[in-house]
Design brief:
Blueprint lengths: L1 E10 L2 E7 L4 E5 L6 H13 L18 E10 L2 E15 L2 E10 L2 E2 L2 H7 L2 E4 L5 H4 L2 H15 L1 H23 L3 H44 L6 E6 L11 H14 L1 H7 L10 E6 L2 E2 H4 L2 H23 L4 E5 L7 H14 L3 E5 L7 H5 L1 E7 L2 E4 L1
Helix pairs in contact: 4-5, 5-6, 6-7, 6-10
Length: 380
Amino acid sequence: MYFTKIRLINYRNFLNISIDFDSNLNIFIGDNAQGKTNILEAMTMLVRGSSYKTNNDKQLINWDNNVSCLFGEINKNDESFEVNISLEKNVESFNKIKLTKVIKINQNIQKKSILNKEFKGVVFSPEHLQIIKGSPSLRRRFLDEQISQIYPLYQRYLSGYNRILGHRNNILRRGDNRREVRENLLIWDPQIIKRGSFLILTRSRFLKKMNYLANKFYQEITKGKENLKLSYQNNVIENLKEEEISLINKAFKDKIERYKKKEIDYKTTLYGPHRDDFLVFVNNANVAFYGSQGQQRTSILSLKLGELDLIKEREGVYPILLLDDVMSELDEERRHFLLELIINKKVQTFITSINLNYFNNDIMKKGKIFKVEGGKVSVL
């Protein structure tokens, strides 16, 4: 899968630009705050229907305009697709602005879920380096984003779980009569158990698969000197060796019943996949606490490359790869490994950087280089 071209109108700092791409490697060079990241964000919008930089689509529209249009031409399995996304701000009252978002594939209006199902993209930005050392919520978000790309049903269960979790927490938070609280929870407990058990099972299977793929790349980068291991942490069922939904269901039900008094006292849901985490080990040491900066970065790079191969295995084609200002975060050896892999696997890749010296002449000859300056894009 690869982009052949995009056109952006009133998107961020771009008023009207068109770019034709190389099917393998595309490098955007320019100073900070010129629009390099905005281009990668626009391509993410065209394959996912959402930005990886903000949850507020109003921010994507150029500040002097009310309408923004994105156009992308994508080739997948030798079939051409045209994707159009329009964003329009409508003032409903003095302080309320409504956004209208329309997604079209080959001129047919589609839901975001259809876009997600048809096209795939993997983003690697400096923010992802925090996955190792940051809070569990960052790792849960990483899991949810990656799994949703591969298993569309997961997103439906996740949305349902979060909605039910909200209702359940409202009952726990507002209820003063313990008996009434218990009676009201009877409505929601079976639903949260059903959806939560599915999330736990899917996350466990995903991490087992990712563990194999990420470790493969980690060993390649370290020339077999180190091993990487992912460990799934959940507070519902210990030692999840037998991946059977019935066992998780039973464990979840038992946990809720056993600690319901505690949840009523704390006024919140204490057990479930919303408390999940996963740990990363290198040679059996927790890399968040005992790993070097190089080991932490190699771990994230390996996870992202594992994601590439997992999507390829499931979809039959590689997704597009977007590397947003990560070359400066990797040493020369890791940069060389990553670029060689991109070329050899023929993964269409988009890289932003302020320094062209990160790329040798052989690499630059195998792709296209663009200069981004002041909302303008030119080919070097």
